[in-house]
Amino acid sequence: MKRSFSFRQRVLLASGLSLIAATYGLVRLAYGLFLPDVQRDLGLDDGAAGWISSGASVLYCIGAAGGFLLAARVPRGLVLAAALVAGAGAFGMAAAPDAVVFGTASVVGSAAAGLASPALVRLVAAGVPDDRQDRAQSVVNAGTGPGLVGAGALALVLLPDWRTAWAVSGVFALVAGGVLLAASHGDERTSRSADRGRGPDRGRTAAHLGVIGLALLFGAGSAVVWTYGRSVLVDAGAPVVVSVAAWIALGVGGAAVVLTTRWTSRFPAATTWTATTGAVAVAVVALGVWPQSTPTALVACAVFGWGYTAATGALITWTSEIDAARASAGTSVLFVALVLGQAGGAALAGVLVGSAGTLAAFAAGAVVTAGSAALGPVVRAAVGARSSGCTPPTPRSRRAARSRRPAGP
Q: Are both 227 and 340 inside the same structural domain?
């Protein structure tokens, strides 16, 4: 029988979840939520908004790469860096006198999410006994959904005062980081030996190529919603309460993955991938074509949040199926590919919104996302042919890989 968490472990998990909520939901992904109000006050055009989102994705990848390399040695140092970078980014956006300063702060702040995830995996592994690892990692990783909901709540209370909302987010990030550092004191030495990396494997790398391509496509196709999801509703005449409620629905949809994991885990990763990315493609179309319909917008955002989060889980399962012994490294590679796809997709979406309108941008995003769904079975067949020499997964290793995933790009 699994024992309950001690008080110190509960504080560790609560503060870890809060840091993920701050770096992902409140700083990195809330950009699209506040974008319409920022554009109005700072004169930020659609094309520039897309490039800012693109740059933020690139900085996230750089932060994730640095975190992956350093987390085993200095996880608490990375937590401090993540909290400071998130706080600085949020305060910079809150005080920005013009679009250039705002964009720079937004891009820099996005690196915090990439720094936080690898560090938290190590600290939780060091601070929680093995028989509670799966549950503990899942609790921390669930922070993105509540962060999105929290950002929506701030918007409902404070808009059109987006500056105060960013300032509150910055304070929250610093407090969460400080509490986590206090709760994890003494765990850093243990974490250094908690996970030792493995060398590269040519068969594993070849087997991942197709899945990396799918992650790139999916990131590119889904970027239009993360960047312009609320903007399309505002442009269609939706009142603030409706457009913000749609963003909250997105976060609720992401959190709902916890309820459907038992069902999706019964299928191979490729099957889950096709189903979830296909759902995202439908949601992108619905949001782009019928933004004036409140019920459609709310349902589309909830479906998008669920499909996006579940698809990232499918990537984790897929790398475990290819080579369970190196699933953590494979997950990092696939998530970086996903966010790099978002970088390109956000830039392209900005160009399309400025030149052809939001409908064209959303249609393009849906087509690319549908392509990643349709190619799932093809890649599955190719992976099966290439991964015959890789370490096969076990039910335990699949669970471990899922529990140790980054919080999500």
A: yes
